[in-house]
Write a structure and sequence with these properties.
This protein is an all-alpha fold. It has a domain of 87 residues. 74% of the residues lie in helices and 0% in strands. Helix 1 crosses helix 2 and helix 3 packs across helix 4. The longest helix has 44 residues. It is extended and about 65 Å long.
């Protein structure tokens, strides 16, 4: 048996031993996973970020302008001293400002404009047929908005619309929960297939 498959199988069983109860074998495997993940992330960060995008262009390609992010990065370490910790506020402010400037338009488009555009599809298709899915979307949007319209009491027509909106919300939450469960089950099935197939050779 391949040594890598043997180690992966034993560590998988060590992780699944938590299903019985918390034990030292599980804690050792958990600590090993966290340590390896941190080590891999640090090596990847050093190689793909610091070396490839900072040190190599700075030393070999004479990218003098890269001294600016280098200085800003070093200023982050000023938090280790109480006297100079105020210097770290400058790169933190730049990171937050640049991150917000990049994230706000992207999130506005993905979570607002894209969602709004999905609710204004034409009800009549090009072939002259009636698009039932567009009608369902319109009804779902209007009734869900009616449910969250709290400045008016949910009675009469508003109450009926709000009730229909709750059904749409429950369908959404149920579908989301089902997708999450199925993704976890697919991961479990993959590990069981590995254990019974590659590790124990019970499946061919």
């Amino acid at each position: 048996m391949n040594l890598g498959i043997l180690i992966a199988g034993l560590l998988t069983l060590a992780i699944y031993s938590f299903l019985y109860k918390d034990n030292p074998v599980y804690r050792a495997a958990e600590s090993l996973l966290i340590g390896l993940s941190i080590g891999y992330t640090l090596v990847l960060f050093w190689q793909s970020t610091l070396f490839d995008k900072l040190f190599y262009p700075l030393l070999r390609e004479h990218g003098i302008w890269l001294t600016i992010p280098l200085i800003l990065g070093l200023m982050m370490f000023s938090r280790l001293t109480r006297k100079w910790s105020w210097l770290s506020r400058i790169p933190i402010a730049l990171m937050i400002g640049a991150g917000a400037g990049a994230a706000i338009p992207a999130m506005l488009y993905a979570r607002t404009l894209k969602q709004v555009s999905a609710t204004v599809h034409p009800l009549i298709m090009e072939n002259g047929g009636f698009d039932i899915s567009a009608v369902v979307v319109v009804i779902g949007v209007l009734t869900t908005l009616a449910y969250f319209y709290f400045t008016r009491e949910h009675k009469g027509v508003m109450g009926k619309m709000a009730r229909v909106g709750t059904y749409f919300l429950m369908i959404f939450f149920g579908a989301t929960f089902g997708y999450t469960v199925m993704s976890r089950l697919s991961t479990l099935i993959g590990r069981i297939d590995f254990l019974l197939g590659d590790f124990l050779h019970l499946l061919k």
